[in-house]
Structure formats: structure tokens, C-alpha cells
Amino acid sequence: MIKEWATVVAWENGEALLRCDVKASCNSCASRAGCGSRLLNKLGPQNHHILSVASEQPLVAGQKVELGIAEGSLIGSALLVYMSPLVGLFLIAALFQGLFGSDLAAFCGALLGGVGGFLLARGISSKLSRRADWQPVILSVALPPDALRVETIISEDGR
């Protein structure tokens, strides 16, 4: 189970709206000067994700919850998203190269196969996202932000 903490934005009728902050580890890596991932992280302005998760327990805005998702579903979705366009690209490019015998045909086939693989992954992922075992679940709930209060009592003698 892969775990991550999120903050409750709203809760209504058994559905919690959560905000997960994106954590980039680029500031702690020794090779950050020559890393391409650091540049890619700087391109996107998005520093959090909003998602909706079922929760029977009433939650308060600002409350922290621990989310979990099964490793199998995460690996399966990553394989689907990355491998379908790649397999489509190679298969259709090889097919067009064999049928038409030119590099231009192979290029067009690669383009069609990549786009077709992407569209296939998009269609399959929308069906898989409805499965219960592919959904994130709330594992634990922290105290609401107003539940803990610290008071400092100063005695008359100043201690």
C-alpha cells in the first residue's frame, strides 16, 4: 500500500474533497544541477492535486487524512499509460513499413499507432478508474485543527 497525507478541503454527503501537495525531492538530490526532472518540475505551476474520496466519517476542512492506494493498481495504471502508446507506435510503424516499404509510411504508422495507443489507454483507464480496488482509500484520520488547544498558564510569581 502506498500512503500519502492529504488535507480536507470539504466534506459533504459521504464524499470528501481532498488536496494532496506535490512533493519534489529535487532540492535534496546531489545531482540537481544536471537533472532533467528538476527542469520539468519547474515548468508546471501545479503544486497540488484535488481529488474526491468516499468517507462515511464526517470530516472538517483543514483536517489531515492518510490516503492509501494499492501498489498493483498504481503499477497497472502506469504500465497502461506508458506502454500502450509505445506498443501501438512500434506495431503500426512495423505494419506500415512492411505494407508500403517506405520510411514515410513507417513514420505515419508510428504517429497513428502512438495516438491510437494513447486513445486506447484513455478509454481503458476510464473504465478501470470505476473499480473499487483502483480507488484511493482513507486509512487514518488526524484530529481536526480546532480539537487541540495549548494554553500557557503564568503564575503570579512569574514562572
From TrEMBL:
Lineage of the organism: Bacteria, Pseudomonadati, Pseudomonadota, Gammaproteobacteria, Enterobacterales
Presence of the UniProt keyword Transmembrane in the record: yes
Entry keywords, A to Z: Membrane, Transmembrane, Transmembrane helix
Transmembrane helix among keywords: yes
Any single Pfam family the record assigns to this protein: RseC_MucC
Highest taxon above the source species: Bacteria
UniProt cross-references to PANTHER family, sorted A to Z: PROTEIN RSEC
Residue spans crossing the bilayer: 74-98, 104-121
Protein name: SoxR-reducing system protein RseC
InterPro entries registered for this protein in UniProt: RseC, SigmaE_reg_RseC_MucC
